[in-house]
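Re: How this chain folds, sequence and tokenised backbone to follow

Filed under: protein folding, tokenised backbone structure, sequence and structure records.

Contents: The amino acid chain and a row of whole-number tokens, matched residue for residue.

Body of memo: The sequence and its backbone structure tokens, given next.
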Amino acid sequence: MLNIDKYAYGSRIANWSPMTKALLWLVGMVVAFQPFELVKPVAFIIVAGITIWLTRISVRRYLHWFYVILPFLLLSIVGIVFTISNSKTNLIAPLPIFGTYLGLSKSMLPLGIKVALRSLTAIACTYWFALSTPFVQVIQVLKKLHLPKAMIEVTMLMYRFIFIFIDAFEQIYRAQKLRFGYDSMGLMIQSSGILAKMLFEQVIINYQMMTKALDAKLYDGDFYV
């Protein structure tokens, strides 16, 4: 069983109606995308606190799951707020580069903050749904919404392989960390290359194992979900 499934099945509201939880998640997403910015940090704190209480998860473990997403979020925000301009009056902390200036755009900084708040609130709501709803119930919601069968099957396979990938990443990284594989820049580059190679091999091995399991069960091209 995947770690996220353990938390979902052990949640205090695991037996709630999946449609009710899906509706609450939808309300959270509406709050995340509504125009009143002051509501979003409050919603983020409330949803995060409720999630930690419902799933009995530690704060450190909960915040750890944000580490995977934060680099992508930071890259998106950097692309929005940093710009090059011929005039330094439009920038915050301008840095001269070959006759132009690089810095934070005064006009785009509020947009970057909005994107950050919106993304963090939406992620917190999604974590609440994922950590309190077993995946079987998620499939039930998709079926009740009468989504195409192929879409449900792809969702099921993506869910399984994404978290198998994350679990394999954590195991390999932890083993490298215990062997001081990231103590210097050279070791970090070497360990990262080994990590990428082993993850690729692990994905292939898991795919082969799944194929053999499906063949043993006389798989005919349809997943019965």
User: Anything to note?
Assistant: The first strand starts at residue 82 and ends at 85.
